[in-house]
């Protein structure tokens, strides 16, 4: 569905609804997302490659097949240690 840009990041929204969205990301080796927060919980599924997630100051290395929880309002960053693909599932709280 998606290829990483040379020395960059590609993304594609696969589904979007009031309850959340699903986005696939492709990272070239050494690329990532700087620290940020979101208002929603998310699950990141590493589809291929390896990614280091820094969640609330704690680094976690995730290989293909791993799922990492990204809690709402907790700072997190993403660093692809090799060419990688990730499926991000954001879950909006319907009560919010």
List keywords for this structure.
96 residues, 5-stranded antiparallel β-sheet, 9 strands, 0% helix, 61% strand, globular
Task: Write a structural description.
The protein has 96 residues and is mainly β. It has no helices and 9 strands. It has a 5-stranded antiparallel sheet with strand order 1-2-9-4-7, with no helix packed on it. Strands 3-8-5-6 form a 4-stranded antiparallel sheet, with no helix packed on it. A hairpin with a 2-residue loop joins strand 1 (9-17) and strand 2 (20-27). The N and C termini lie far apart (32 Å).
The run of helices and strands is EEEEEEEEE
Share of residues in helices: under 10%
Work out the radius of gyration: 13 Å
Overall geometry: globular
Q: Please outline the major beta sheet.
A: 5 strands, antiparallel
Number of strands: 9
SS strand fraction = over 45%
Structural class of the helices, strands and pairings? Answer: mainly beta
User: Number of helix segments?
Assistant: 0
Instruction: Report how far apart the termini are.
Output: 32 Å
């Amino acid at each position: 569905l998606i290829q990483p840009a040379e020395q960059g990041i590609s993304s594609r929204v696969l589904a979007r609804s009031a309850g959340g969205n699903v986005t696939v990301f492709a990272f070239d080796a050494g690329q990532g997302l700087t620290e940020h927060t979101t208002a929603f919980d998310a699950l990141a599924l590493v589809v291929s490659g390896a990614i280091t997630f820094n969640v609330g100051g704690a680094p976690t290395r995730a290989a293909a097949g791993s799922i990492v929880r990204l809690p709402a309002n907790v700072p997190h960053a993403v660093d692809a240690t090799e060419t990688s693909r990730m499926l991000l599932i954001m879950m909006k709280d319907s009560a919010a």
